[in-house]
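Here is one such tokenized protein:
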Amino acid sequence: MQATADALATVAKALVSGGRGILAADESDGTIAKRFDKIGVENTEENRRSYRRMLFTTEGMPEFISGVILFDETIRQTAEARGSKTLVQVIVDQGMIPGIKVDKGAKPLANAPGETITEGLDGLRARLIEYGGMGAKFAKWRAVISIDQGRPTQRCIDANAEALARYAALCQEEGLVPMVEPEVLMDGDHGIGACFDATERTLHAVFDRLYGHGVYFEGMLLKVNMVVPGSECKDQVDARTIAEQTLACLRRTVPAAVPGIVFLSGGQSDTQATVNLDAINRMGQQPWPLSFSYGRALQAAALTAWNGKPANIVAAQKQFYRRAKCTSAAARGRYEPAMESQG
């Protein structure tokens, strides 16, 4: 058991080491279809393969990116349609750690109008065994918490906390590091105080249930939203306020034993997500490394530059490299706006 615990802790620490963070490339077919639609690219398996291979093979990427979260299709794909080398092998050969999204998505929660519960516990043990055999070293499960009149309810928070804890315990039993992701959504016109309250309540419940299920805190990661006003709130705040409120909330709720916290971008623009991460890391040393696990905020510029055309791959990789470099600098509190115009 100690050998397993040590291995989990080693992987968890490696994922947040040296200012590096995680590329979330685990978009479902439906989500990536929306992104492809915006650039006029057909949502085919070959286009999805080509796009993700472009990201994973970007020269210098491992300097800033420690791991990659994959979708079920991607972990099964080869780098070439008729090749034998898998995309997992591409990631490992680059010196990064492969991970996998294992939840089945958020569905309506019974007797809780407007709220959801993330499903996927049925058959999870078998899926974890299969994914581990394919090379995955960590896994991700996302719960969704929304803010509105009377929401989030304690019923919703507790149900999702229980599911996250059961998932995390199963992951560790099968030798995968669980990335526990309770996301309080930015959607709405609520102020930053409402986000603080919902995030604090959610994290208290999550760590209570993680402890109750015997989850080894040193062998997990927390993926969480920053404490920000709703996207439609009239009273937006500066990056320093976001940093102060986010850290105050985390210090109240997250055990120091957790080896790292990675933020999701959660609807922020790529620049906003970078500036806010930098402000958080300029606040001084915290009990945990504070890094990133961004999807769209790392990919948006590269996706637009690529536009589905092989001739654009080099230009798109330059955009991805620049964004990863800026975000990694923010994870060390060393981001400067001038970096946006650099290679």
Q: What stands out?
A: The CA atoms of residues 109 and 117 lie 5 Å apart. The first helix runs from residue 2 to 15. The beta strands are 21-25, 65-70, 97-101, 106-108, 116-118, 138-145, 177-184, 221-224, 261-263, 290-294. The first strand starts at residue 21 and ends at 25.
